[in-house]
Design goal:
By secondary structure, this protein is an alpha/beta fold. The chain contains ten helices and 14 strands. The protein has two domains: 140 residues, 3-Layer(aba) Sandwich (Rossmann fold), CATH 3.40.50.720; 160 residues, Lactate dehydrogenase/glycoside hydrolase, family 4, C-terminal (L-2-Hydroxyisocaproate Dehydrogenase, Chain A, domain 2), CATH 3.90.110. Helices cover 42% and strands 21% of the residues. Strand 4, helix 4 and strand 5 form a beta-alpha-beta unit. It binds nicotinamide-adenine-dinucleotide.
Length: 307
């Protein structure tokens, strides 16, 4: 990819920029932030790691949306993170107001870009960006499930003592406490995790996955998680930039899949050079469908607050 932009040079934005630069994912990487000097400083700091990591990506930062011009992919991390005790929905109004202005700037300066939403509540903001741009759903999507699945895979590795290299976890649904860890589709080298773990251990893993973000926030107090979120974003960007056609859980607009439309949710998608190239509809068992519906209701509830 020639040019990628990251909006929000805070913790998640800066960490994402470092991963993308280190992987030489694109030729040009720009950061945009409202705080004077923040994006410029982050860009320069990362640029100075180039000789150590050996990448050729050129970084630039600024406060003017014109810096987005020509970006093929825009990652949106701008907004306020939640504080301890807050849910992701508690930051909805502030982050929607920020997003609306940003989307107008993106439409003016990077009208052909794809949008990868990260700011929370990510399902609702993905829906909002899709609605406001009027762009097709393949170009507007969000990150949640790659992070949630990575958290779950980490907990499976910690509980079993087995290598993460063999562990595949899948988490669907909204990016909140009602997310849906899909145990049937979580395996260790193709063998369902239930073969290795007791029901008690599985229940612990599911609970810890659902509250993975809150666990870190409670420990750090002044910052929410950003290393794993940034690595998850970088994995999605890599799949798109290199047209890998990876199957990754993605916040996507549903257009009849799972019997739903006019809502954005975490579902497995094929990610490639055209963004969300297709949405995969998995058959759900009644208990999974129940959890999926609960998660969906939470997202719809927040979407209705926008209307
Ligand atoms: N989807 C996920 O899995 C996931 C994971 C972690 C964090 N998040 C979300 O990502 C967002 C960022 O988190 P963070 O920890 O990096 O927060 P942060 O406070 O460190 O960074 C946010 C940045 O956005 C900037 N900003 C605010 N308004 C802006 C605007 N109008 N234009 C440009 N920049 C603007 C701020 O100046 C700040 O630098 C939060 O909403 C957080 O909840 C999502």
């Amino acid at each position: 990819m020639e040019k990628i932009a990251i909006i929000g040079a805070g913790r998640v934005g800066e960490s994402t920029a470092q991963f993308l630069a280190k992987n030489d994912t694109c030729r040009e990487l720009v950061l945009l932030d409202v705080r004077e000097g923040a994006a410029e400083g982050a860009a320069l700091d990362i640029q100075e790691t180039a000789p150590l990591f050996g990448f050729d990506t050129r970084l630039k930062g600024g406060t003017d949306a014109a810096i987005l011009s020509g970006a093929e992919l825009v990652v949106i991390t701008a907004g306020i993170p939640r504080k301890p005790g807050m849910s992701r929905s508690d930051v909805l109004d502030t982050n929607v107001a920020i997003l609306d202005k940003l989307v107008d700037g993106i439409m003016e300066h990077a009208p052909d870009a794809m949008l990868l939403l990260v700011s929370n509540p990510v399902d609702v903001l993905t829906y909002r960006a899709w609605q406001r741009t009027g762009w097709p759903r393949n170009r507007v999507f969000g990150q949640a499930g790659v992070l949630d699945s990575s958290r779950m895979a980490s907990f499976v590795a910690l509980e079993t003592g087995l290598s993460v290299n063999d562990i595949n976890a899948m988490v669907l649904g909204g990016h909140g406490d009602s997310m849906v860890p899909m145990l049937r589709y979580s395996t260790i080298n193709g063998i369902p995790v239930r073969h290795f773990l007791s029901e008690e251990a599985i229940a612990r893993i599911v609970e810890r996955t659902r509250h993975g973000g809150a666990e870190i926030l409670a420990l750090k107090q002044t910052s929410s998680a950003y290393d794993a979120p940034a690595a998850a974003i970088a994995a999605m960007v890599d799949a798109i930039a290199l047209d890998r056609k990876r199957v990754l859980p993605t916040v996507a607009l549903l257009e009849g899949e799972y019997g739903e439309r006019d809502v954005a949710m975490g579902v497995p998608c094929i990610l490639g050079r055209n963004g969300v190239e297709s949405v995969i509809e998995l058959p759900l068992e009644p208990s999974e469908r129940k959890e999926f519906d609960q998660s969906l209701a939470g997202v719809r509830n927040d979407i209705n607050r926008l209307k």
